Amino acid sequence: MGAGTLDRRDVVADLVAGVPDALIVAGLGSPSYDLFAAGDRELNFYLWGAMGAAVPMGLGLALAQPERSVVVLTGDGEQLMGVGSLAAVGARRPANLSIVVLDNGHYGETGMQPSHTSLGTDLTALAAGFGIQNALRVSSRPEISVLRDHVLARSGPTFAQVLISPDEPPRALPPRDGVHLKNRFRGALGLLPF
């Protein structure tokens, strides 16, 4: 498990292009930078410092917006921290939720120490064990289209462990104003800001 050879920016750009109407929640650090680099949109919500919160937020959003595809974009370190949230996803089974874990086998935000996925932890097996019916490992570019099809089909919660290279591209920083991001996202959903 752990690091692969896929380029993280290419994976995220391909996925976002394939699901243009999806609501996307990006976890802290590199997933947010990758999403912003793929093109800022009102349907993107960047979690700057809420480590472990991407999946719970995506779950709540999927339950509140059942007619919309919801994608959580996170890293292996954040998912390992919030692994228990997968139990809630497996219990609630929102058909419109897809969790995409960009797994480089390292804790990228704290100095590239090896993460547990490079030491044998199998996130795909954990997701399946929590009852997430579509649990897959993505290690090649053609498999990105399979992941995209799962997002668009909304046929049960999907979990994808995407094996990416540990290379770190230059940071592309999204807006840091939390109130602005919240109001922009709510506006895109047709909800009044508060």
Give a topology summary.
Blueprint lengths: L7 H11 L4 E4 L3 H8 L6 E3 L7 H11 L5 E6 H6 L3 H8 L4 E7 L2 E2 L5 E2 L8 H7 L4 E5 L3 H12 L4 E6 L14 H11 L6
Parallel strand pairs: 1-2, 1-3, 3-4, 4-8, 7-8
Antiparallel strand pairs: 5-6
Helix pairs in contact: 1-2, 1-7
What can you see in these coordinates?
This protein is α/β, with parallel strands linked by helices. The protein contains 8 helices and 8 strands. The strands form 2 sheets. Strands 2-1-3-4-8-7 form a 6-stranded parallel sheet, sandwiched between helices. A two-stranded antiparallel sheet has the order 5-6. Strand 1 (23-26), helix 2 and strand 2 form a beta-alpha-beta unit. Helix 1 (8-18) crosses helix 2 and helix 1 (8-18) runs parallel beside helix 7. The protein is globular and about 45 Å long. 44% of the residues are buried. The mean pLDDT is 90.
In short:
This protein is of the alpha/beta class and 194 residues long. 38% of the residues lie in helices and 18% in strands. Strand 7 (134-138), helix 7 and strand 8 (158-163) form a beta-alpha-beta unit.
Q: Whole-number radius of gyration?
A: 15 Å
Largest sheet, in brief, is: 6 strands, parallel
Count of DSSP E strands? 8
Kindly report how far apart the N and C termini lie.
43 Å
Number of helices: 8
The assigned structural class equals alpha/beta
Mean pLDDT: 90
How would you write the strand order of the largest sheet?
2-1-3-4-8-7
Which outline best applies? globular
H/E series:
HEHEHEHHEEEHEHEH
